[in-house]
Amino acid sequence: MNCECCVELPHRCSGCSTTAGKPLWTSEFDDCVCPIYVCCVLNKQLSGCWECHETICTVKEIL
Description:
3 helices, globular
């Protein structure tokens, strides 16, 4: 995942780092934090989702 590819950045969304894992699309849910952000940044302590290079990822498959 790389926010730089998103057409909403920086106009409507400032990215996961700035929004603490609540990018624009999570506003459709009740106070939801992106599950990929939770896995990569909160659980694995990576700087961002783009740092995770796991080839098999159940979180990404859900989305």
